[in-house]
Amino acid sequence: MEYDTIAAISTPMGEGAIAIVRLSGDEAIPIADKLFKGVGGKRLKEAASHTIHYGHLLDPKKGEVIEEVMVSVMKGPKTFTKEDVVEINCHGGIVSVNRVLQHVLKYGARLAEPGEFTKRAFLNGRIDLSQAEAVMDLIRAKTDRAMNVALGQMEGRLSNLIRRLRQEILEVLAHVEVNIDYPEYDDVEEMTHNLLLEKAHLVREEIQKLLQTSEQGKILREGLSTVIVGRPNVGKSSLLNSLVHENKAIVTDIPGTTRDVIEEYVNVRGVPLRLLDTAGIRETEDIVERIGVERSRQVLKEADLILLVLNYSDQLTHEDENLFEVVKGMDVIVIVNKTDLPQQIDMERVQELAKEHKLVTTSLLEDQGVDALEEAISSLFFAGAIEAGDMTYVSNTRHIALLNQSLQTIEEAIEGVEMGVPIDIVQIDMTRTWELLGEIIGDSVHESLIDQLFSQFCLGK
Asked: Which helix (H) or strand (E) holds 332?
């Protein structure tokens, strides 16, 4: 399959030591060769694959030097896109890298669409769709654990499992065809029913295992929406600063200092948190503070984890007890802060209110209890299971939806066999399971979906 030659800046815009302009396509090397003047007059067309060359880019018409560069030449099919690829390494800077890109486009290349390099890798059979999506997960990974999951998927761990399951289904469908074509053999029907049931149970079990990892995988991919709540001046902003290890939020002794929702990403023992510090929830006559309180109540409804903060040196109030009612049924860690001050709070009552939740005591002023809090967050969602390096984690929302549909169709197939439904009817559910699993790796997927997925990628990837 042949495409035109594309080019894009593959490094982030801004000042830096190096910037890279990448080209891919049949004309990648000839286009770069028009501009490149190497030491000793060496031509890129004559260069061996996977070599790098020092020289200058010149404007062919004016003869002016564009940039001092190092140019990598990689000939297909042993490249990411399976096409000829050239990477021009120039000085990092908005002007220099844009000047290189403009000349590359002027002499025959087309500006790549977002994700088009990875899309070509998929369309040319270099990677499947799940591996392509893992490329973006790898770029967006916010913790080592999230990166390891993306690496496993990019290396084909999920793809290999899906292909194995689809092969199991194909073998069953082949036996079903024999049964339909040769109905005169009575033992074939019985053997086919038994084999179909056995394989269907195997496929269902594997899909269920994948779905069991999906909650953890999705957390690693997207992060936990974590909301810090409590009455004003209990230490919510101090907690955010302790977890972020920076003074992001203003901390004062004046209640109501935080007027809006402050958002930060933080890595807590490999668990990515999208941390939201909210305005203290209380009744107030201050119009601006009241708006902040309403926003706090709204983000509570969308949270994956609640950090409910209480003040050790204050008595429990009706507002405190009300918060326990608001977060009922959610994943909550109760934090009793300011243990460096004299105790006023009724800890027995707190333990009674927090009996369904984890309870941690802290003195954020003296940096005490933060380790225990981080351990509580990690164990609440992963309980050590994430450390299993040989497990295949599903993190992509599209994959999870397709696996749920596959589970439903395979269960309908099992139910059909057990009820004695004719095999050719059961075959429909098995075939649909095979198709749904194929959509995960891109073997049976609409072109519009492919375009939509790759449009979410960054330019140059």
From this structure: strand 332-337
Contact 100, 57 (CB under 8 A): yes
Q: Note whether 7 and 102 are within 8 A (CB).
A: no
Burial 410-437 (b: 16+ CB within 10 A, else e): bbbbbebbeeeeebeebbebbbbbbbbb
Burial (CB count within 10 angstroms: exposed 0-12, middle 13-18, buried 19+), residue 445: middle
Amino acid identity of residue 5, one-letter, is T
Q: 57-78 as b/e, with b when 16 or more CB fall inside 10 Å?
A: bbeeeeeeebbebebbbbbbee
Instruction: Give me the phi and psi of 171, to 5 degrees please.
Output: -60, -40
Indicate the SS3 state at residue 160: helix
CA distance 398 to 396: 5
Residue 341's SS3 state is coil
Element (H, E) at 336: strand 332-337
Could you give the domains of the chain? 6-128 (3.30.1360.120), 129-442 (3.40.50.300)
SS3 of the chain: helix, strand, coil, percent, to 5: 50, 20, 35
The DSSP secondary structure of 67-96, one letter per residue, reads: EEEEEEEE-TTSSSSSS-EEEEEEEESHHH
Tokens of 169: 């289904």
Q: What value, to the nearest 5°, has the Cα angle with vertex 228 and ends 223 and 230?
A: 165
The pLDDT tens digits along the chain (461 residues) read: 567 999 999 998 888 889 999 999 999 999 999 999 988 778 899 999 999 999 999 988 888 899 999 999 999 999 999 999 999 999 988 899 999 999 999 999 999 988 899 889 888 888 888 888 877 777 767 666 677 777 777 778 888 899 999 998 888 887 777 666 655 555 556 667 778 888 889 999 999 988 887 777 777 767 778 888 888 778 877 888 887 765 443 333 433 333 344 567 777 777 778 787 665 444 444 444 444 445 556 667 777 888 888 999 989 888 888 888 888 888 889 999 999 999 989 999 989 888 888 899 998 888 888 888 888 888 877 654 444 444 567 777 888 899 999 999 999 999 988 888 887 788 889 899 999 999 988 876 666 666 766 676 666 66
**Distance in angstroms (rounded) separating the CA atoms of residues 368 and 359:** 14
Angle between the 186-222 and 397-418 helix axes, to the nearest 10 degrees? 160
